[in-house]
Amino acid sequence: MKKLNLLVILIFAINFAIAQTPNPVNGDNSKHTDGPLIEQVYEVVLYPNPVVNNQLKITASLSIVKVEIINMIGQVVSTVKNDVPVRNMTIELNACGKGLYMTKITFEDNKSLIKKIIVK
């Protein structure tokens, strides 16, 4: 029950932070409710989701410099840094047990996007 409460709080905090993010297209501080605007600008696909065989593939329209896998209590369980930014990559998730994780993707322009994944 305690883990479920932490999960609900974390999801609420992430959704609140997204709603407070300034709109990068027109520079205003209006709130948007359709998810992070950066996802509309940068096409990012994580597959398969749910993850099977401990391999997560990421494809993006802008080059990726770093990917962090974060568990639901906020601990970074895996970090992959690219010396040369890439648009397609495969991440081994051997350090992750079954469950829900957040994937923080940092692009070459230092903007980040967080997406949820499930590891089976």
CATH H-level superfamily: Macroglobulin (MG2) domain
Which class do the helix and strand fractions yield?
alpha+beta
CATH topology: Immunoglobulin-like
Q: How much strand?
A: over 45%
- The number of distinct β-strands equals 5
CATH architecture call: Sandwich
Give descriptors for this structure.
120 residues; alpha+beta; Immunoglobulin-like; globular
If you had to describe this structure to a student in words, what would you say it looks like?
Strands 1, 2, 3, 4 and 5 form a 5-stranded antiparallel sheet that branches. Strand 2 and strand 3 form a beta hairpin. By secondary structure, the protein is α+β, with helices and mostly antiparallel strands. The protein has a single domain, classed as Macroglobulin (MG2) domain (Immunoglobulin-like), CATH 2.60.40. 20% of the residues lie in helices and 46% in strands. The longest helix has 19 residues. The radius of gyration is 15 Å and the shape is globular.
List the helices and strands and how they pair.
Layout: H1 2-20, H2 37-41, E1 44-47, E2 55-71, E3 76-92, E4 99-107, E5 112-119
Antiparallel strand pairs: 1-2, 2-3, 2-4, 4-5
Quick structural overview:
The chain has a single domain, classed as Macroglobulin (MG2) domain (Immunoglobulin-like, Sandwich). The protein is built from two helices and five strands.
